[in-house]
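Subject: Sanity check before I submit

Could someone independently write out the structure tokens for this chain? I want to compare against mine line by line before I put it in a report. The sequence has 286 residues.
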Amino acid sequence: MSSWFKRTDKGIQTPTEEKKDVPKGLWHKTPSGKFVDADELKQNYYVSPEDGYHMRVGSKEYFAMLFDNNEFKELDAKLTSKDPLKFIDSKKYTDRLEAAYKKTNLKDAIRTAVGKSQGNDLVLACMDFSFIGGSMGSVVGEKIARAADYALKNNIPFMIISKSGGARMMEAALSLMQLAKTSAKLAQLANAGVPYISLCTDPTTGGTTASFAMLGDVNLSEPGALIGFAGPRVVRDTTGKELPEGFQTAEFVLEHGFLDKIIERKNLKKQINLYLDLILNHPLRN
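---
Independent answer below. Compare away.
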């Protein structure tokens, strides 16, 4: 029997506080099991070069991608949620909000801003999934409504980037009313001929899908995004049928006519402005 098997010492005795762990955030793992260096991921618009997987990012990253030189004016930046229902589940809604403020450094699940994208004026609203699952509450609806008003008043194209788990249950019917409110505002833009572009990202579900996410003059998506109203399990249990492969992926939704185009993130700014140039009758760029 070899000597190493008969060792009676306890091996390496490095104290816990002296162990050198790999710092968090240096590597990211995609669903297919590919590991990507964080710096390489950032340079590639947070898309895995190994398998094309689009990592979830928030308003900070999308604003940097779409606004020229990352220059913009944020709209209604201080708007925050109230708790009119005094809602409590496993914890108070006010406590959830406070935890979300500290975790994300955001005021709610959406940010709105105005700036220039390839020289075109653009009002942009972008959801943040990191804030209570990108849930749509009163503040999300109000900020979209105010951003639409700004676009309408100044005759500037409007774009919403959706990333949401659906309506915010802690605001109950108040949250559901945002579906009608945002849809009405988008109808005003349509009547005035102000362009509205919708971009669905992973995930776009629930009341978001049932309202502003699917009401664009052009409905776009990133590759592989989950898009649907109810989750696959709920749909399967409700219909009693097995679902097709790839059900509720952006590619499936495109194939069945509910999207106009799937755009890789690296091409997003160019494609958005191509649509704007066409809609606004601008000269085509090289």
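---
OP: Matches mine. For the report I'm noting this point. DSSP finds eight helices and ten strands in the chain.
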